[in-house]
Structures are given as C-alpha cells and as structure tokens.
Predict the 3D structure of the following.
Amino acid sequence: MTKLTLASYPHMLGFEQLERVLERTAKAGNEGYPPFNIEQTSDYSYRITLAVAGFAEQDLSITVEDRQLVIRGRQSEGPDDRVFLHRGIAARQFQRSFVLADGVDVGEALMENGLLHVDLTRAKPEKVVQTIKIRKGE
C-alpha cells in the first residue's frame, strides 16, 4: 500500500511545509497532562486554556520556538518534612506544544483560578488578485 502525501495531488502545489508540520505534530505525542481546551473566540482569534492547578506563575514558561508554542511547567519543591497519606494532586513537570500556522501570533497569557489562558490571533487574510501577462513565444 502506498502512502498518500500532499505531493500525490497534482493541484496541491507548494504544500510540502504543511506536510512536514503535520508529521511533526503527529510525533509530538498525545500525553493527557495537563488537560487543555482550545476555543475560537472570534473569526481570527483563539484561546488555549490549560488546567494548571498547583502551579504558580513563576513555575510556568511560555515560548515560541520555530513556529511552535511551547508551554512548560515545573513546580518548585515544597518542604521535605511533609508526609502525604494520599497524594492525588499531580505535581509533575510537563511540556505542551502547539504548532502555529504562519500568521498566527501569541498574545497575552493570563492565570486565573488554576487555569492558564493563552490568547492567539491570526492575521486577516488579504484578498489578492493578480493578473499574469501572457507573452508571445519566439
């Protein structure tokens, strides 16, 4: 069985980069921690919300690396004299990555009630009509 790629479709020209992005996204894994939502807040904006209960602002970092939004969390260790009879609240480090399309910019981040909100905006596409002049062959 042959693998279908975007190059297999003759009308899809110049989409090789999209194919690489899809492959990179598939390799990123599908770990479930921390849980997150992605909502569309308008025609050209989005909000990613991560459940980060127990993390303080200084325990989190948000970076954009090679068109990828990377959110990392690492809790600082608490006092060693604490004895847990049950520990059900996760206190592990995490990294969540989201591939960003060209034209998507990361706006502000807001921490509220154990939720980290990261706002994204996408530039409104311009409608471009280009006329190509046909020249005579010699």
Observations:
- Residues 1-30 form one domain.
